[in-house]
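I have a small job for you when you get a moment. Can you supply me with one protein entry, sequence and fold together? It will help me judge whether the discrete encoding reads sensibly. Write everything out right here, beneath this request:
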Amino acid sequence: MRKEFDFIVVGSGSAGCALASRLSEDPSVQVLLIEAGPDASPWQIRMPLAMDMLLTSTTYNWGFESESEEGLRGRKISHPRGRVIGGSSAINGMLYTRGNPQDYDEWRDSYGCTGWGYADVLPYFMRMESSAEGDDRYRGRKGPLRVTRPKPKNPLNAAFLEAGRALGYPVTTDTNGPQHEGFGVAEQTIVNGQRNTAAAAFLNPAVRARPNLIITAKTVVEKVVFEGKRAVGVRCRTADGPEVFTTTREVILSAGGVGSPQILQLSGIGPAEELQRLGIPVIHDNRAVGSNLQDHLDIPVQYRCKKPVTLKSSTQWPKKAFVGINWFMFKGGLAASNQFEVGAYIRTRAGLSKPNLKFEFFPLAVSHNDFKPYSDEAFQIHCTVETSYARGTLRLRSANPSDAPKLQFNYLQDERDMETIREAVGLIREVVASHPFDEFRGAEIEPGEAVKTKEALDEWIRERATTAFHISGSCRMGPANDPETVIGPDLKVHGIEGLRVADASIMPIIVTSNLNATAIMIGDRAADICLGRQPLSPSNAPYWVNPNWQTSQR
């Protein structure tokens, strides 16, 4: 195996797979893609409904955990992250959603991220995807990432969508098109009944066969190697011992919201005082590395169901066996979907121009203690705070690359986030109380009908809220003269040559959606930036903003 490359991409997650694939399209460019986890695609990864196994896996999951969170009654929150070729796209919920167009215009206008407005990123979303849905001005048809839209059959899904319509909410036919806000069907990265990871899409056999692309798995990058303030390679730990790979052009960190700031700090780029305390030589003092840590907080509201239409029977023998057999033999049936097939992006109050809340309907309710289904028929609606005001930090626990970093999210330390969840619970109760749920609605399980006062609701929220698994923002993008930023809009690390970051960690603010689609877009666009290619021409396609946003909640 060669030791020198033009580009070294660290991390084969959603962004890294797209980046390495696009870079290696140029046969004159030698690319090394490094992954800490295995190169594997077992049935647990390929079966959409097996994602619960992956969230607790020790083979394909880093299994991070937060520090004690004061706003959550001192609880430590589990944070699964993919540790396999494909990264978190191999263990996530497979929802494909780009975010609200206003997110990207805010990146550009409020955070100085020139070239990252909606008009700039839409062509990259289109280039990376292949979809049979929506308007040609918004949807891609020939990209490597196939995206599908389920045809929900469960009557509870239909009741949820009809409830939104009956209550006067907008209804959208394409949350990834011009209208993000509203009730609608949730698109998936599931193709022919199997999970479509970033690796499956961007590192297909033809790409892997390129002689200028080397993929090395089970290789942990311990630090970036420098000559002065120029990155010249990476030091790794492999099964055969230590190894150093060098670059003639650039190292690009695509190790995610945890891995990228951790590697930067281990390499001597971060808060100088913290690094010196751990005995790490300081290459560049930047307090912003590991700051601006963001996530989406999530909490499910649960109800018993009066009819046997939930997924409960499918989780019990003997029907559970038939569900598995159907998938293994035909890649069909319930296991061929993530079962999060409908949802809604809504605003909780007037005066907000874009949604700050997401509903995800799941036709099964599970215990918050062990995630096992309830013994009787029940369903739940997840409410996810999309516009999060909490800002946390990621700091090294030690100078040992094997030690997981300290993750402090400061959940619910900002009253605005608590207020959004309070509003969300009230809105879910209104949805389930509406007439489309009349034939299904049973007793409220969580938080329970007795939880009505602000004090009781707040207590329940602090005891039950958890993560939506959307770590981001820890290597914030912005202009070099802003001390709160780590990289510029060109993805170059401030004060350093030959080093860039391209993954969800660069988001100045978290997008109003799940992160997978945006992370892939960042990796896809990063390739053009790294190679000095002319960016794709900006789009002139307009997007929809609720005309009543200033005076109405819906």
